[in-house]
Amino acid sequence: MRRQVKSGAVKRELLQGESTKLLQELHLLTREGNLNADSLRKLKQVNHLVQLLQPAVEDVLERFGDPVVVDCGAGKGYLGFIFYELFLAKAEKGRILAIEGREELVRAARERADRLGFSRMELVHSRLEEAMLPPRLHLVTALHACDTATDDALFLAIRGNADHVAVVPCCQAEVAAQLKERKAAEPPISSLFSHPWHRREFGSHLTNVLRALTLEAHGYSVTVTELTGWEHSLKNELIVGRKVRGSNPAARKELDSLLAATGVQPKLHRLLAG
Ligand SMILES: C[S@@+](CC[C@H](N)C(=O)[O-])C[C@H]1O[C@@H](n2cnc3c(N)ncnc32)[C@H](O)[C@@H]1O
To answer: CA-CA distance, 159 to 147, in Å (whole number)?
Structure first.
């Protein structure tokens, strides 16, 4: 992994339509115009994700007059800003709502959006659980939304009947803790997670398997791939869903039996049940 990209070579890291001016505004570039190792990693992740999102964006821009994109757990808003510059600015329509729970990040991002004239980018200070959103969403994203915040994002997508959803989960720990209670699982299933290390790994894997199955049960066609090379991020699983039908009873049955066999109740499942 390269440590730094010198200013003269930064252009090679940019996508078509992506400006060094924006990267400067996002403080991804140093004062000298270089990309340091952390910024390079972040840029690689965001650029990969926006590239993968391109067909989904084109789809919603083509089909809807004013598509609503929601970025959950937006942090400093890197994804939203880059997304806006690449897609929404050019399209002259559509808006992005970037939801973030930390007020200081929201304030800074709002000021940045004003400076850039990104008038259809709204920075929403809210917990995802309490966010007031339009009833119908078109594309929902969550890049490294911590632990169950990814469940909140998926819930918002399913509830908002989003046409497309893309999440890159982060440090999913809830299910591992539930496995420890071993409420339902019997051997040999329980042998998959009797050691703490296995419980953490299996819990993390099971969480994302259940998330993918839940999307399928709600009528999404789902693909699970890696976002970038492992050298750019260890939190690298990308779950992408495209709404293709109302529901999928076969996936629902599979989901219910996996929940029963493992005895877990992830937040996404609780939110949808409630
Ligand atoms: C690891 S950061 C990722 C930020 C950004 N998506 C990125 O990739 O640069 C996760 C962000 O989600 C926010 N977050 C976590 N849980 C949240 C919740 N329930 N509601 C709103 N924001 C939340 C955190 O404050 C943090 O800024």
So the answer is: 20
Q: How far apart are CA 232 and CA 42, in angstroms?
A: 8
Confidence category of residue 116, pLDDT binned at 50, 70, 90: very high
Nearest to 48 by CA among 6, 89, 18: 18
Closest protein CA for atom 23 of ligand 1? 73
Find out if CATH 3.10.310.70 is the number for domain 45-273: no
Residues forming a β-bridge with 239:
167, 224
Rounded-to-integer distance, Cα 80 and Cα 15, Å: 15
Which of 49, 144, 148 for a ligand 1 pocket mutation test, highest count of atoms within 8 Å of Cβ? 144
Q: Determine which residue's CA is closest to atom 26 belonging to ligand 1.
A: 75
Quick one: pLDDT at residue 61? 98
Find out whether the beta carbon of 127 lies less than 6 Å from any atom of ligand 1.
Answer: yes
The predicted-structure confidence for 27-68, as pLDDT tens digits, reads as follows 999 888 899 999 999 999 999 999 999 999 999 999 999 999
pLDDT of 187 reads 87
For ligand 1, whether the C-beta of 100 sits within 6 Å is yes
Tell me how many degrees the CA angle 18-20-25 measures, rounded to the nearest 5.
105
Task: Say whether pLDDT at 184 is over 90.
Answer: no
pLDDT at 230 over 80: no
The amino acid sitting at 37 is A
Nearest CA residue ID for atom 4, ligand 1: 75
CB atoms closer than 10 angstroms to residue 255: 21
Probe target for ligand 1 pocket from 26, 43, 128, 171, with the most ligand atoms within 8 Å of CB? 128
